């Protein structure tokens, strides 16, 4: 009789442990994972909004923004006012690119159809620089 009680107790222990492991695995899968990306883009513009501040391309604060100079150079090299030249970030610091652009240099928030962003003088050209970040969430199906 005592052997039967031990067997039953051992069985309950094994089933309980298996249930606990299954629960932990399921909860672990429920946590969503996000793939974060941000792009900084530049575009040649013909006009600057009246209340926008134009930053010179030699500004140290502008040069410290990751990808800003590269995006501006690409926009000027393409010489296409109809398209954006982008630099995309996929690492852990992607969100900080957006924040840094909007907080470090004068950011213009257009409301009458103008481009939002930082207006930059690059030689004889004016370029608007903006950044956007996004996250793609992945969740378990159950």
Low-confidence stretches: 5-30
Kindly state the percentage of residues in helix.
25-40%
**From the alpha-carbon coordinates, what is the Rg to the nearest angstrom?**
27 Å
Q: Order of strands across the biggest sheet?
A: 2-4-5-1-3
Shape: globular
Biggest β-sheet strands, sense, barrel? 5 strands, mixed
Percent range for β-strand residues: 25-35%
Structural class by SSE content: alpha+beta
- How many helices? The count is 4
| Distance from first to last alpha carbon | 43 Å
How many beta-strand runs?
5
Q: What kind of oligomer do you see? A: single chain
Mean pLDDT: 79
Order of helices and strands: HEEHHEHEE
Fill in the keyword field for this structure.
142 residues; globular; 5 strands; five-stranded mixed sheet; alpha+beta
Protein architecture, described:
This protein is α+β, with helices and mostly antiparallel strands. The protein contains four helices and five strands; from the N terminus they run αββααβαββ. The protein has a five-stranded mixed β-sheet. A hairpin with a 2-residue loop joins strand 4 and strand 5. The longest helix is centred in the N-terminal third of the chain and has 29 residues. The two termini are 43 Å apart. About 18% of the residues have low confidence.
Task: Please summarize what this structure is.
The chain has 142 residues and is of the alpha+beta class. It is built from 4 helices and 5 strands, in the order αββααβαββ. The two termini are 43 Å apart.
């Amino acid at each position: 009789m005592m052997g039967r009680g031990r067997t039953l107790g051992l069985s309950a222990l094994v089933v309980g442990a298996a249930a606990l492991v299954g629960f932990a695995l399921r909860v672990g899968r429920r946590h969503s994972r996000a793939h974060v990306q941000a792009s900084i883009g530049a575009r040649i513009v013909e006009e600057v909004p009246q209340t926008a501040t134009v930053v010179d391309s030699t500004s140290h604060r502008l040069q410290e923004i990751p990808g800003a100079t590269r995006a501006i150079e690409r926009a000027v090299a393409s010489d296409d006012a109809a398209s954006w030249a982008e630099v995309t970030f996929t690492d852990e610091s992607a969100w900080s690119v957006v924040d840094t652009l909007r907080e470090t240099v004068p950011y213009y928030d257009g409301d009458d159809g103008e481009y939002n962003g930082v207006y930059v003088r690059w030689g004889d050209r004016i370029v608007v620089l903006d950044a956007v970040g996004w996250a793609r969430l992945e969740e378990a199906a159950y």
